[in-house]
From TrEMBL:
Protein name (record): WAP domain-containing protein
Annotated WAP domain residues: 134-179, 180-224
Cross-referenced InterPro entries: Elafin-like_sf, WAP_dom, WAP_four-disulfide_core
Pfam families cross-referenced by the UniProt entry: WAP
Organism: Sinocyclocheilus rhinocerous
Signal peptide, first to last residue: 1-25
Top-rank lineage group of the source organism: Eukaryota
UniProtKB keywords: Signal
A GO cellular component entry from the record: extracellular space
GO molecular function: serine-type endopeptidase inhibitor activity
């Protein structure tokens, strides 16, 4: 065997030995613990400082927080509890709980709903109810007046019969006919001994009658003439001032 052939054989055997040693080697990957890292650090870490889950013991994961990487118990992927139904447009009931983040914080089938006063737990409503609450009847509410009780008889116009609207009386809400100024002028205030507010605006009076001042309150009366609306307002204001004087 010549020296050249001998050298070639030695080189071949060396390459084959290297190939076999590479194929016999196993490729290792970092240890992965099942589960997910929690959003916030709420427990005492079992170890401070780690690079992979393999650096942690007892089934903990290596998680990174603002304070740095630590070993903590993993959490499962959970989704917030969703209660069927919708949040009402207005807060009309006493909440079962003040303060919540998700429906899961509420009990008894209530939902976590946000109002001006903050998030609270209240019973859900249907989509039909949401649509009803959003319906507004034509017309305007009369100005709030004193002398009415602070009791709520409606929450939206849909709670009121016929063409009545749900209006504020300065304390709560009640059903009333929309604010109306009918044609005609109020007669001179009648001398009525019993003080009473039987009406607050023309819309609460039947047919062509207007809500006119009396010597002690307001009552529905037949108008005189068909004057200009602005003139009517002036005359009625003068009548009120005359009564008060």
């Amino acid at each position: 065997m010549t020296a050249r052939v001998y050298c070639s054989l030695i080189a071949f055997l060396s390459g084959l030995s290297g190939y076999l040693s590479i194929t016999d080697a196993t490729v290792s990957f970092p240890t992965m613990v099942a589960g997910f890292c929690p959003m916030t650090l709420t427990v005492v870490p079992s170890r401070r400082g780690c690079f992979t889950d393999g650096d942690c013991s007892g089934g903990d994961k290596c998680c990174i927080f603002e304070s740095g990487p630590v070993c903590v118990p993993p959490v499962s992927m959970t989704f917030p509890t969703m209660v069927a139904g919708f949040c009402p447009m207005k807060l009309t009931v006493v909440p079962s709980r003040q303060g919540c983040f998700t429906d899961g914080d509420c009990s008894g089938g209530d939902k976590c709903c946000i109002f001006e006063s903050g998030p609270v737990c209240v019973p859900p409503v249907s989509m039909d109810r949401i649509i009803q609450q959003s319906v507004m009847k034509p017309g305007l509410c009369p100005p709030p007046t004193s002398g009415r009780s602070c009791t709520t008889s409606c929450n939206s116009d849909s709670d009121c019969p016929n063409n009545e609207k749900c209006c504020s009386n300065g304390c709560e809400h009640y059903c009333t006919a929309p604010y109306t100024v009918k044609p005609g002028l109020c007669p001179k205030p009648k001398n009525i001994h019993a003080c009473a507010e039987s009406c607050f605006h023309d819309g609460q009076c039947p047919d062509t009658q207007k809500c006119c001042p009396t010597t002690c309150g307001h009552a529905c009366s037949e108008p005189h003439g068909q004057g200009n609306v602005f003139r009517q307002v002036i005359v009625e204001a003068e009548a009120v001032l005359e009564v008060e004087a």
